[in-house]
Amino acid sequence: MRQAGRILKPYRELRQRHGSLLKLFQTPELAAEITLMPVDMLGVDAAILFTDLVTPLEALGCELTYAPGPVFARPIRSASDIDGLRNPVPEDDLAYVLEAARLVRNALPPAVPLIGYAGGPFTLATWLVEGSHAKDFPAFRRMIHSDPALAHRLLDLLTDLASRFLHAQIAAGAHAVQIFDTSIGLLSPAQFNEFALPYVRRVCRSLAALDAPVIYFPLAGAQNLSSFGRVGAQVLSLDWRIDLDAAYGLFKDTMPLQGNLDPCALYGSEASIAKAAQHILKQGRGRPHIFNLGHGVYPDTPYEKVKLLVDVVHQFAQT
């Protein structure tokens, strides 16, 4: 479960002690400690590397702060802005992420895999052009209409960055990697086919020769569900808006699916949490399915409810 660590008391203590999220991300020992917390305290079946979707963008030479979310001092809006970007080498410019991956891999029990991740090229572009979080990310969406050639140029650059970053994470010990496309729901089918599909497909193709499955998570993208099987990922992760039975029907039970409990379900009663989880588990039974939330854990989610969910899933697996 992505961001599960932030509900845990030791994480909150680390955050309070060190103050800066950037320090937690950029200090391998701290990032590794946080990555391991959900495995140790919740009993989840995989560890997700503690880094951020926008982390590799700073390596382009884009100054990044958190206030409290990511804020870029200089959004990328023009050809000259793109000309000024660096060509980072992940092994050098993102070495702290890779060292954290190595530390986690060495500390994990053999049966627990490590999942690395990166943002999809379109999602990275929305953050880099907007400069911070915004409703509907209008700045990059304007660009794809006003200067599509410039948008494609930026997407091409970010595709290479994401591919190299994920490749480096696998080399550092990640057993699998996930591509988070959290802005992809903004695109119509035609826009997805032009400004997203070719680029995320290229990322997947670049990783195809490696012994590490790729998981693709397109948030709020139900309008493009039929196209997600073409990205080249081995697993499709779904948010809570999509019915698993409908997705399995579309893909003829051949595409492994991950998901997809509504994270807000964890604010319910113990009985309602168990019922909701079991409904999804029954939908996935006999099919290729990885249980997960339909997005990240909200920071005020009660620890006891998350632990209950993990226990419900484990108990179901034994029946």
Short description:
The chain is α/β, with parallel strands linked by helices. A seven-stranded parallel beta sheet has the order 1-4-5-6-7-8-9.
Descriptive notes:
The structure is a single chain. This protein is α/β, with parallel strands linked by helices and 319 residues long. It is built from 16 helices and nine strands. It has helices at 9-18, 21-26, 28-42, 55-58, 79-83, 90-93, 95-107, 121-130, 138-146, 148-171, 189-195, 197-207, 225-228, 244-251, 270-284, 303-317, and strands at 47-48, 64-66, 70-72, 114-119, 176-181, 214-218, 235-237, 257-261, 289-293. Strands 1-4-5-6-7-8-9 form a seven-stranded parallel sheet. The relative contact order is 0.11. The mean pLDDT is 96.
Defining key terms:
319 residues; alpha/beta; seven-stranded parallel sheet; two-stranded antiparallel sheet; 9 strands
Computed Rg: 19 Å
Number of helices: 16
Structural class: alpha/beta
Give start-end ranges of low-pLDDT stretches.
Answer: none
Number of strands: 9
Percent range of helical residues: 40-55%
Mean pLDDT over all positions: 96
Which of globular, elongated, flat, extended, rod-shaped describes the shape?
globular
What's the story with the biggest beta sheet?
7 strands, parallel
Output the helix-strand order. Answer: HHHEHEEHHHEHHHEHHEHEHEHEH
The percentage of residues in β strands lies in 5-15%
